[in-house]
Amino acid sequence: MATVGRQSETDMQGSFLEAFLELTPDAAVVVDAGGTIRAANDLVGSMFGCSSESLVGQPVEVLLPTRFRRVHEGHRQGYVASPTARPMGANLDLYGLRADGSEFPVDISLAPLANYDGPLVVAAIRDITERKRAQDVEARLAAIITSSDDAVVSFDHAKDIQSWNPGAHRLLGHDEPDIIGRPLSVLLTDEEEAALDAHLREVASGGRVEPYDAQAVHRDGHMLDVAITISPLRDRRGEVIGFSMLMRDISARLRAAAELAEARRVHEELLLVSDRERIARDLHDLVIQRVFAAGIGLQSVARLAEPPEVAMRILAVVDELDDTIREIRSTIFSLESERRVVAGLRSRVMALASRSAGGLGFEPAVRFTGPVDSLVPDEVAEHVVAVVREALSNVARHAQASSVTVEVIVGPDELRLQVTDDGKGLGQPDRVSGLRNLRERAESLGGSLELPPVDAGTVVVWRVPLG
């Protein structure tokens, strides 16, 4: 009877084990103390590419790559000596071996099971190929973010900073422990934050925002030129749970753009200088010689002219020709000065007047008298350029003028800048207040600003002494 009872219990245990293996959601095998597979469910066969029946009676090591089998035998014997429910190979990379020889990463959990024939172990096996792939992708992304020279910052809907990579520390100066949890506003001006809010609303609603140029605030307070890219962060359901912001330093790009613009400007000025050299040469070689010859001829005629009044008129014309020759020589000198100093005061004023044509609707007339480039100190020249710029801006905004003349007159002791327009005068308070800066510039150099009365339009006279 005892034998029959024990056999019945053994049969019941076998039925229970079979039911357990079929109901478990994971691939599972039952292994005895000697390492022999006593049972396996159908999920094991599907996972390893064979029938579960073919595994029964084989050593469990057939499910492992050859390189792991000897070590596994030692682990298995140690487990049988002290069986507890636990993961197998914690912190180790475990792999299974399919019937076709391919390998795949697995997680294995072990649990002891009492049996009259001896201890049994249930091993639940889970294919973690997709999880490992996702972990590898996350690790690569983390490595990219960590090694990136760009600042990569994530923040939640409240705009509190959640992550901070080393590139953000290098670019913006804040240490990660000090910046995590702080509001994003510490990195942006009010104006930039308002622009960012509009971009975040666009991104949160499913739109896309192209990278845009902005300015960020460094830890020490100075401003940085950056390009910002905004992306949403989503949970598994696709809900936006926050945002990532990439900031890239574009100061080198902006410097290069400025240098390119300057190079183009210099190139254009060199072309202008080349034309001026040709004009100066033609004036000297052709015009002066012809005018001078005409004057000599008229002087000869004057000696023969009758009555004396006719001779006086001819000589007066000769004097006018002499004055013309002097003016032409002055012009030649100015053109040659432009050649020697490409970025001199004269060329800067000319370029400024040309650029102002868009706002005025016409190009101002510009006149120079005296050694503008050679006698005016750099400090005064900077003020002159600023005054011309502001004066032309005032005319464009307020005067409603149809013509403007800018005159720069340099004498031995004084520079006089005069801007004359034919607009509606100084009746507008805004325009009068706009002249305050011009007066302050003149007074800072010991000079003055004068607004002489005229019948129409406005005349602004800006004077400063030359040491």
Description:
The chain is α+β, with helices and mostly antiparallel strands and 467 residues long. It folds into four domains: 2-133, 2-Layer Sandwich (Beta-Lactamase); 148-249, Beta-Lactamase (2-Layer Sandwich), CATH 3.30.450; 253-342; 344-467, Histidine kinase-like ATPase, C-terminal domain (Heat Shock Protein 90), CATH 3.30.565. The protein is 51% helix and 22% strand. It contains 16 helices and 16 strands. It has helices at residues 2-23, 42-48, 52-55, 66-81, 129-147, 166-172, 176-179, 190-204, 251-304, 308-340, 345-355, 357-360, 372-375, 378-399, 429-434, 436-444; strands at 27-32, 37-40, 86-87, 94-97, 103-113, 120-127, 151-155, 161-164, 212-217, 223-234, 240-249, 365-369, 404-410, 414-421, 448-450, 458-465. Strands 1, 2, 3, 4, 5 and 6 form a six-stranded antiparallel β-sheet that branches. Strands 8-7-11-10-9 form a five-stranded antiparallel β-sheet. A five-stranded mixed β-sheet has the order 12-13-14-16-15, covered by helices on one side. The longest helix has 54 residues, at 251-304. It is rod-shaped, with a radius of gyration of 46 Å.
Name the features:
467 residues, alpha+beta, Beta-Lactamase, 4 domains, 6-stranded antiparallel β-sheet, 5-stranded antiparallel β-sheet, 16 strands, 51% helix, rod-shaped
